[in-house]
Amino acid sequence: MTALDPAAPSRRPSGRARRLGLYALLVLVALIAAGPLYWLASSALKTNPQIYAYPPHWVPTDLRWSNFSDAWNAAPFDRFFLNSLVVSVVGTAIELCSALLCAYAFVFLPFPGKKWLFLFLLGAMMVPGHVTLLPNFLTIAQLGWVNTWAGLIAPGLGSVFGTFLLRQHMLTLPKEVMDAARIDGAGHLRTLFRVVLPMSRPMVITVAIVIMVTKWNDFIWPLIVTSSADMRTLPVGLLFLRDQETYANWGAILAGTVMVILPVLIVFFIAQRYIIAGLTQGAGK
């Protein structure tokens, strides 16, 4: 039948050409996305003349590994890493627990005004974070938490975005499992941590990574609430490094930037399958 069908030979080249065009588009998008990262990583190993050279040198001819040691010694990066690690890990743990409890309450607990309260939370997602900078700073200052870990962590303990994602995912969980847990006499906390949490692991990991990356990359709030170098986080530390280098040693500044983003990239590549699974599950409702 294929030989008798005059349209069959013309369909194959068009389908093959469509796939080749799609692959070419994907390669182009990947190059556009990875280009700045490659330039950053390669420039971190260049000397200043190579960085300023025109036309640009895409491959460094003389690898300058000392840029990383220069960046580490020019600023207290060990303290910057410690501060960012404490803020990201502790803040993410508390914020994730809060989002889990709130999402569970919105889905499985009946209480008056639940729908209106959830709409209020959705509205809060549309408010820019910079609007709350002054009220948060005044509150932290009155509590005496300026230039402390508590001051860095406290304003971000509530996660409206995480609550929204987890609520949407929990709406897709089978009601039969929840009914079985209720018949077995499980309370709400036991149901959350023994039933809901294992079934929501990909989405929980996705929310945790989103929260952690947001806290790791936060710049404005740590810049406002800290006043000494020993309490700066890594993004603010890059500004400190730039001031120390006075725009002269861009190789060291770029090497410091690589050290800042490398932990986030490692976490993303390790957990990317959980992120994809979590977002796929969250697309059900």
From TrEMBL:
Keyword terms of this UniProt record: Cell membrane, Membrane, Transmembrane, Transmembrane helix, Transport
Residue spans crossing the bilayer: 20-41, 85-109, 116-138, 144-166, 192-213, 219-241, 253-276
Pfam families, per database record: BPD_transp_1
CDD domains, per the entry: TM_PBP2
DNA-binding is among the record's keywords: no
PROSITE patterns in the cross-refs: ABC_TM1 (PS50928)
Family: Belongs to the binding-protein-dependent transport system permease family.
Protein name: Carbohydrate ABC transporter permease
The species this protein was found in: Streptomyces milbemycinicus
Biological classification of the source: Bacteria, Bacillati, Actinomycetota, Actinomycetes, Kitasatosporales
